[in-house]
Design goal:
- Pfam families: Ala_racemase_N.
- With 221 residues, this protein is of the alpha/beta class.
- It contains 9 helices and 8 strands.
- It has a single domain, classed as TIM Barrel, CATH 3.20.20.10.
- 41% of the residues lie in helices and 17% in strands.
- The protein has an 8-stranded parallel β-sheet with strand order 7-6-5-4-3-2-1-8.
- The longest helix is centred in the last third of the chain and has 18 residues.
Length: 221
């Protein structure tokens, strides 16, 4: 934890930013609820998960900790009701049908869920996201829907490409979204291997797993 904090602080210093501008989202996928409790004891308040089955169980086990839960994986509409039950932020909104489903379930549950539009910065459909040209249209749909609020944008740096260049593009897209929706200030970008580049390009939320908890075990169904 101390090493990650030092890395973020150094990245902020290099970018002329303050540590308070960044939210660390600890990604605990494949690790048990006991590790979430350990992270919470070290000051972590935001936890990210990318599989509903695993996330919902951990959220129940850690309900007493008052954590903010972030759903960061690709989300199928048949999992939306479950995810809305515990997630405070959904980072992976990438299609109108998902906006409709999230809005419906959030209204039904009497909750307000913060939604980020996931931007596809490469040509790999398996990683999710909407193409840059369609981001503002999808952002408008989120902003107009009940039960959810537009928080901003999210992206994963393309494999094999310079992350700094990708995050600079994401920053431009985020600025275009904010032109119409000033409250949409979140830029979710940067993981263990590229958080410095993300900080340099305006990221507000860093999704860090490996640097906190080590190399992940393969997921077995």
């Amino acid at each position: 934890m101390a090493v990650v904090e030092a890395t973020i602080t150094e990245a902020c210093k290099a970018a002329g930013r303050t540590r308070e501008e960044l939210t660390l989202v600890a990604v605990s996928k494949t690790y048990p609820a006991s590790d979430v409790r350990l992270l919470a004891s070290l000051g972590v308040r935001n936890v990210g998960e990318n599989r509903d089955q695993e996330a919902s169980a951990k959220a129940r086990e850690c309900a007493d900790l008052g954590l903010t839960w972030h759903f960061i994986g690709q989300l199928q509409t048949n999992k939306v009701r479950s995810v809305v039950g515990y997630a405070d932020v959904v980072h992976s909104v990438d299609r109108p049908r998902l906006v409709t489903a999230l809005s419906h379930e959030a209204v039904r549950a009497g909750r307000e869920i913060t939604c980020l539009v996931q931007v596809a910065l490469d040509d790999d459909p398996g990683r999710g996201g909407v193409v840059p040209a369609q981001v503002t249209t999808l952002a408008d749909a989120v902003a107009e829907a009940g039960g959810i609020r537009l928080g901003g944008v999210m992206a994963v740096a393309p494999l094999g490409q310079e992350p700094g260049r990708a995050f600079a593009r994401l920053r431009e897209i985020a600025e275009a979204v904010r032109a119409d929706h000033p409250e949409a200030v979140v830029i979710s970008a940067g993981m263990s291997g590229d958080l410095a580049e993300a900080v340099a390009n305006g990221a507000t939320h860093l999704r860090v797993g490996t640097a906190l908890l080590g190399r992940r075990k393969p997921f077995v169904r």
